[in-house]
Amino acid sequence: MAAPIVPARRKPKGKVTLAHGGGGKAMRDLVEGVFVDAFGMGGAPLEDQARLVPPEALLSGGRLAMTTDGFVVDPLFFPGGDIGKLAVWGTVNDLAVGGAVPHWLSVSMIIEEGLDIEVLERVAHSMREAADLAGVRIVTGDTKVVARGGADKLFVTTAGVGVIPAGRDLGAHLVQPGDVAIVNGYLGRHGAAILAARGEMMLETAIESDCAPLNGLMEAVLSAAPGTRCARDATRGGLASLLNEVAAASGTGFAIEEARLPLEAEIRGFCEVLGFDPLYLANEGRLAVFVPPGEAEAALAAMRDHEHGREAAVIGQVTEGPAGRVVMNTAFGGSRIVDMLVGDQLPRIC
Fold first, then answer.
1. How many Cβ atoms from other residues are within 10 Å of residue 151's Cβ?
2. Which residue ranges form the domains of the chain, and what is each CATH number?
3. Are strands 101-112 and 137-146 parallel, antiparallel or unpaired?
4. How far apart (Å, rounded) are the C-alpha atoms in residues 311 and 62?
């Protein structure tokens, strides 16, 4: 049998046009010249689906975990990250906090006509680097091009699949009174970095996003503290919304200590100038874990030994209730209720 004819690939240049979403040669050149090369798919057949070999953990009684997320951050590139890293690591983190070991990602790009192809290449290569750092593979994807004004430069949607090893079970419903809450580092960096990068406030700051993959950190915590009840990443809505969600799901309350919150002076100053509460600022490399009191010291030590947990801190404890209520004991000796975020403090931050 004769070998299949493989058309010559042409690397696209210039700007994205509607033809790049039309299903023809221009689209093939865009997909193969930008994404296939960047994602390292060149050696695999380009079918309409990825064909995957189940990992050993799945064959040994593990469970599949799947998540999906959309990313519309503005600007596309910001101090400490970009929409590509955000998409990969945000999806990885959603799997990791559920106890899953992430394996595979899919990527869908909604591209506005007129976007520089060089920007797409930069994002694609950033995604590949982010996937390599997290130990996952981008195995399938899709592109669509919309007319000018139909989107804002580039929107990215990802889906991720991982495996929860047999015997591992995490969930907010498992949290109990007396459990200890630990966060892995400084809060509010991502939200502050995005706002500063937009230039709307005429701010000059060296704040960088905390955007990072947290699957390695989670595995370290689970190894040191196998009784960990629950973990959540503090993204939109910040730590305050995370704590309220877990309190509501577990039917417990939380008492957190303002003096223990890991907040940099620069973030405190940023929030004071603009009238923000750092508890509600978005994070993209921060999580909270809830562990039995007897394992808190081990969990904290495991975090601090990891590159993404050097500034980890115990912030408080789970209480009997009232159910769903989060109370912060302030540095001045009083207390205040910490509610869910109402409205949108900073739109389009992820």
1. 17
2. 18-43+61-164 (3.30.1330.10), 172-337 (3.90.650.10)
3. parallel
4. 32
Question: What global pTM score does this model have?
Answer: 0.93
Q: Looking at residue 4, what is its pLDDT?
A: 47
218-273 residue pLDDT tens: 999 999 999 999 999 999 899 999 999 999 999 999 999 999 999 999 999 988 88
Distance, CA of 79 to CA of 197 (rounded, Å) = 7
Question: Which residues, including other chains, have CB under 8 Å from residue 347's CB and lie 6 or more apart?
Answer: none
Cα separation of 24 and 199, whole Å?
39
The per-residue pLDDT for 9 is 59
**Can you spell out the DSSP letters for 57-87?**
HHHTT-EEEEEEEEE--SSSEETTEEHHHHH
What pLDDT score was predicted for residue 202? 67
Distance (Å, whole) CA 158 – CA 83: 11
Q: 144 and 109 in contact (C-beta within 8 Å)? A: yes
The number of residues making up the chain comes to 350
Q: In angstroms, rounded to a whole number, what is the distance separating the alpha carbons of residues 68 and 91?
A: 7
Distances in whole angstroms, Cα of residue 167 to Cα of each of 77, 170, 219, 301: 40, 10, 14, 23
DSSP assignment of 174-238: G--TT-EEEE-S-SSHHHHHHHHHHTTT-------------HHHHHHHHHH-TT--EEEE--TTH
